[in-house]
Specification:
It is built from 14 helices and seven strands. It is α/β, with parallel strands linked by helices. It folds into two domains: about 220 residues, Serine Threonine Protein Phosphatase 5, Tetratricopeptide repeat (Alpha Horseshoe); about 130 residues, Glutaredoxin (3-Layer(aba) Sandwich), CATH 3.40.30. Helix 2 runs antiparallel to helix 3, helix 4 packs antiparallel against helix 5 and helix 11 runs parallel beside helix 14.
Length: about 375
Amino acid sequence: MKRSLLLPALCLALATASFAADPAPASAPDFSSFKTADDLWKEMEKLQQPPAKEPASREEALLQVQTWFQTQKVAGEAFVKAFPTDSRSWQARLIILRADMQLRRFSGQKSDPAADQQKLDEIINAPEAPAPLKGEATFMKVMTLSGSLDKTKPETFATFVKAAEDFLAKYPDHPLAARMKAVEVRVLSDDPSSASEALLKKIAAGSDKDLAAQAKSVLDQRQKTAELKSKPVDLKFTTVDGHEIDLANLRGKVVLVDFWASWCGPCMGEMPNVVSTYGKLHEKGFEIVGISLDKDKSAMDGALKKQSMTWPQYFDGGGWQNKIASSFGIQSIPAAWLLDKKGMLRETGLRGEALGEAIEKLLAE
């Protein structure tokens, strides 16, 4: 999770790891009273505005955002049904698909990238669909590829980057071009292939100052990581409960240094897997030390208790200015560093099954 703030309600909603048990959204309103395409379209434009009410709880935030997407979907379906030949029906189709993709996520349903891409292709290939809309659909199609990114499969990164480059070549002036460039840099930051290094250097030398700064930051971080891998990681700190931790004393064990925060949705989404892996492999010589980027200690404590995170934690209330995170150049979380028995940094950013597999491999060395 980068240092950016989204709509508070949406950010809170997306921060949860599982949505299946959350309350269903309220029934969407009936749009049959709108008799003209212009009137219904004006209403649909209003519905694109995010909820203005500040949610009082996580549950309220989820319900609020789910209802927002559900209403957009129903309105779009009403427009397509009532005015199928109106040129705006293609925009309505995209609104329907975008809302449906979000609602599936909230309900815990498995995504179907192939089906989503097929619907996007219908818009992209429609002769009557306006060019800006085709560009937006193409952008969404590229974004669907992000779900298949896998560090153990470099080809997934190559596929995404090619699609992103194709979009930028075809739609260089599209309103979403800047966002595509920013997303591409974030993807390249995780791309383990040598090709990503060359592309990042090209972006860093470009005329877009903000994008160049992001690319330079990624390259700097890669350099720091390479330096860290040249010798055992040196880290000492006092835990929140007053114990002294020195990684030098953990030689002979496989150690995960986990940079996280309670407000980080991806961190919390991955935490059940980390907890499960710790429970399975701790007795075999696996240790975790946590570096919390929380500012609120009570929020951190709540997450530790809720997720059953029993390993040592460092907390100084600095947030992004956390002393340890800053000293290592951490600029986004989750950031998971896996150290071998010699204290050498071997892997970064592993999640899911790949994390457990890598730990077991290092334990066997």
